[in-house]
Amino acid sequence: MSSSEPEKRRLHVAAALVSGLKALPQLVPVLVVAVLSGRGEESGLLLAVVAVGLLPFSLALGVLGWWRFQYWVENGELRVEQGILVRRRVFLPRERVQAIDVSAGVIQRVFGLVRVQVKSAAAGSQAELAAVTRAEAERLRAELGHASHAPGPETQSRRHAMTPGQLLLAASTSGQIGVILSGVAWLYAQVDDIVQQRVVTYLENSDLGQTASGTDPLFMAGLLIAGFAVAWVLSVIGAVVRYGGFSVERQGNELVVRRGLLERKEVVIAVGRVQAVRIVESLARQPLGYAALYVESAGHAEERGKSTFLHPCLPRSSWMPLLRDLLPEFAVEPTLERPPRRALPRFLLRPVVTTAIVATVIAVFVPWGWVAFALPVVEVLTGLLAYRDTGLGTTSLVAVLRTRGFSRSTAIVPRRAVQFVQTSRSFLQRRRRVANVEVGAASGASGRRFHANEVDERTAAQFLTWCSPRTPGKCHAEVPLQHT
Amino acid sequence: MRPEPSHRIDPRAIRLWQIHGLVQLVLLTVMVASVLGTLLLSSTLPVWTAALAVVPLLAFGILAVGVVPTVRWKVWRYELDEHELDLQHGLWVVHRTLVPLVRVQHVDTVQGPIAKLFRLSAVTVSTAAGTHEIPSLSDDVADQLRDRISAMARQAREQL
User: Cβ of A422 and B83 within 8 Å?
Assistant: First the structure.
């Protein structure tokens, strides 16, 4: 609180532009479809005119919204008043503020500004300042007791960036292709008739047209492959835009993660609030020895249900050095105890039997349905992999739980972060003397659970004892670790 | 291996669960009857075939009223000490849960409409990673347990 009479502040005027142009990205596909399908037709043209005509209106609303948006800090509380007709007031006490995120979209970057999101643990209770200067963002952070980079330079870590090779690898294995593919399929469905008509007419007029036609399977296969290629290229571009310029470093007792080529995001996480680290090796990345690393932190997530990247794509040899540098508490590699051999049938039997039944049904009723018998074969492979990769291990302070669905996921959870621990044994598991282990840790609004299934029941029982606060040892120290 | 938790939940839980089972049985019977009714009206099957549906319904009834409540009560155990809450429950899958008291955010008692007739309450314990419930304790025991967990959680946090 700088003065007794706090002045109400307004955002930078560019905020009007930000909210005024918010609808623009959604307008683009409408325009594309309108132009493509409405060539020469009046309805398509009309749609385009209406869409463009809305723009000045939307900008005017943006200016009004900017005029009616005021914020200030009073009694250690961030107060925001907004709304053109319906006034909304948000009061966020500084002790409730979990995180202050700084990011910058394209418009903000043009003006050299940033967007500030002030988040609290309560769902939906947050304030967003669409465009303020960098200095103003720092001032706000200081006023709300989240001054970044406060401690001296001796706690500064090396800055870990991404090499262009890692970026390209991350982008090409980002797993976004499915999403994009459905997008391409949708777009194709929208313009199907025109494209087919034009392509076919074009081909018929060319030499190729003698052999290729719209129904030729070779031609269709080519089209399909082209579709995949387009989707893949788009997903690579999308991932490059998202991960580009990634860097992570430790400043004092905070982790600072930055990413984004066009829209810059900056996430600051207090090291003491970090509850777990996850190393996720997707099917495409594991053979190459790469993985994405995530941090789970209490009351903070970039987006709902998502964890923050500690690194989007890192080779195996660099995992522990990165953790030693940024979060030394988590840089452990205990030997993992694997499920006993008698647990192997449990990894195979149920998924294989259920998919076999499904495949039989499909094979009977659907032509070419026997292809579905690939499913149980895939299940045998994933079951074997899951058996091979599952593991549970502890050091005196940290537990490591590893599971595999399609990706291999290794969770590193310190004892201080264990919210609860559970073992469960079904009737059949009791007969085989194995048990499932589950650990709950705080993350975002609802927490996150980590598993290690089908481990020896004695291992599971020992793990309960390890987690128990009855067991002596430094188990619930909340003192942030000293950086070395 | 650690011994089972020492306390059982209230034996009237069995009666309560039996009532729940009975309600489910009635609902299921109504559903089956209406489906069978429409099927029989539109087919030439003799009416006595509907009696075949009684067998699975009876089996469900025996399980839901006769077996499950008793077994579930026998498995349910809890124990509270100065460090942690120790729970054991589950019918087919037996769960064993430890909740360190330092992690407890808040404790509530909850009571459903039928449970109210029996003067039974559940205690729910919330952590940052989820909620755990001890069902069907007598109102007095539930209130005491809630207050004890709350007080001990505060104490455990202060000792940090």
Answer: no
